[in-house]
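Ticket reopened. Same input as before:
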Amino acid sequence: MAWRERIWAREGVDDDTIEECTQGQPDQVIEIEKPIVGGDFARAGAGASEIKRLVKKLAVPPAVVRRVAVACFEGEVNVTVYATRGTIKARITPACIFVVVADEGPGIPDIEQAMQPGWTTATPEVREMGFGAGLGLPNIRENTDYLKVRSEVGTGTILEFAFLLRDI
Amino acid sequence: MVTIRDIVEAVDAEVMCGEDLLDREPQCVIASDLVSDILCCREEGPFLITGLAKIQILRAADMLDLVGICFVRGKTPEEEIVDSARQLGLPVICTSKTMYETCGLVFKLGAPSGVYIPPSGAE
Ligand SMILES: Nc1ncnc2c1ncn2[C@@H]1O[C@H](COP(=O)(O)OP(=O)(O)OP(=O)(O)O)[C@@H](O)[C@H]1O
Ligand SMILES: [Mg+2]
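Engineering reply: fixed in the latest deploy. New output:
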């Protein structure tokens, strides 16, 4: 098996933009990392909630706070639902909010297909909790300025996404 | 403008928590039983009508800064859900009416529908 990768980015945004805007003097950078436990549905979204509160405190515009909250939540829920364990990590610099959601899990065999609105492999148990619309990944893409999905079947999945705080 | 108090009266709801917040005026109203569907709302200050009385809904409420929730079809939320709502400063109301009837009554009050932008697929 091999790692597969797909990137979606707003016009004018690429890997270099992200590399650049995630830099910053140590006193200008805030990092937060939270574990995610596979199957722990009651706590799904707890990490996203903390990141949201932190971002809100930093006087980020409300519309951006909502985009960050929604994307982090959908990433975290997917790890809870589909993977064994993982982490959600946010790095906040003056130029951007950069989030990494990484898991050990089954991986995504077909990233393009997973990105289609409505595509889901959610079980009836998962649907009973209100998940399984097949909208999580496409909504992450919709809310972010940059999204990289990397996955290897049998190993896990890594989502990296960013919200730019300045015009580029 | 429509207040949550108006909604309580229109759908004959029981107030579970947030009695002091019923004068809030929802900017828009959304109705869904699916968490990810709810998270497609792109507007500030939505009020949610839902038949899913699960803790997962409260997480979604937190992410979107909902101004209030109405549980329909006589679903009574567990104490854990009401507690979380209290912590979030979120009024929770319950009605025995169906989703359809509740939405109809709230729509008739004149509360605006939330803008829903479904995400597009990968190109
Ligand atoms: N971290 C992951 N590990 C393994 N598979 C994943 C992961 N994230 C998503 N998938 C796969 O991609 C599919 C689509 O994910 P997406 O988040 O868009 O929808 P969903 O989780 O099925 O439903 P919703 O997010 O609307 O509740 C999932 O059903 C699952 O098969
Ligand atoms: Mg999902």
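The longest strand of chain B covers residues 46-50. The domain at 4-109 of chain B is CATH 3.40.1390.20 (Udp-n-acetylmuramoylalanyl-d-glutamate--2,6- Diaminopimelate Ligase; Chain: A, domain 1). Please confirm and we'll close it.
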